[in-house]
Design a protein that fits this description.
20% of the residues lie in helices and 38% in strands. It is of the alpha+beta class. It has two domains: 9-45; 50-211, Lipoxygenase-1, CATH 2.60.60. Strands 4-5-8-1-10-11 form a six-stranded antiparallel beta sheet, with no helix packed on it. A five-stranded antiparallel beta sheet has the order 3-2-9-12-13, with no helix packed on it. Bound molecules: calcium ion. Calcium ion binds next to strand 2.
């Protein structure tokens, strides 16, 4: 049988070589990791200050709408105007009905994702109200016959810089055209920096019907009542 023992100095030299190679690979791995981390950091840098996602059953044809009210600037973001001041609605998802697309071969497909995304790009002080609205009316029988009550809609509000979960609420709709408040919060300047305060997920503050359809928004609610 062959003996593969290394003798004396040559054995030490081989181990040194292995050690140096291992060290080299470790350094290269760290450098590559840092470069990838830096690239990822740059890729996701400041897409928004706040992200609000509304999701419901991916296979449902129900149309849920997300509405945002910012009292300080009288901004009512909704599906009618999806780009207002410092707030943006990515798209009006109308259930599977609006999720169809045509493939390269001309066949019709469906993206099974029911989600609306709102971004708030600047930390503008004031009070924010996030509501969801069950838009599909009772008389759309082809859709409503398949609805199971309560119809659940999840609303998540995230702060991205720095990361913080503001609220995660599961709303329980019990009828068509219902409007439910997911959360109300303030952005205040504290010690010179904008901060989220007064997060409230318990109270209800409907404003969709009050604001939509009017030429001017008459917003006179006393928040203390
Ligand atoms: Ca919608």
């Amino acid at each position: 049988m062959r003996n593969f023992k290394f003798a004396g100095g040559s054995g030490m030299g081989f181990r040194d070589l292995l050690f140096n190679l291992a060290l080299l690979f470790a350094v290269l791995f760290i450098v590559a990791f840092l470069l990838i981390s830096q690239e990822k950091k740059e890729d996701v840098e400041r897409p928004a200050q706040y992200l609000i996602t509304t999701t419901w059953d991916d296979y449902s044809s129900v149309d849920i709408d997300t509405h945002l009210w910012h009292d300080a600037t009288k901004t009512h973001l909704n599906y009618v105007v999806q780009n207002q001041n410092h707030t943006f609605l990515e798209r009006d998802d109308r259930g599977t009905a609006s999720d169809r697309y045509v493939g390269p071969d001309g066949t019709l497909h469906t993206t099974y994702l029911n989600q609306e995304v709102i971004t708030i790009r600047e930390k503008v002080p004031g009070r924010y109200v996030i509501n969801a609205h069950f838009y599909t009316p009772d008389n759309v029988q082809v859709i409503m016959n398949k609805v199971k009550w309560p119809f659940l809609v999840k609303v998540q509000i995230l702060q991205l810089n720095p990361y913080r979960k503001i609220a995660t609420e599961v709303l329980r709709f019990t009828e068509a055209k219902q409007e439910l408040t997911a959360a109300i919060f303030d952005i205040e300047i504290i010690d010179g920096y904008p901060q989220v305060t007064n997060i409230d997920t318990d109270i209800q503050f409907p404003f969709v019907y009050r604001n939509l359809g009017k030429k001017t928004i008459d917003y006179t609610r006393n928040w203390e009542n």
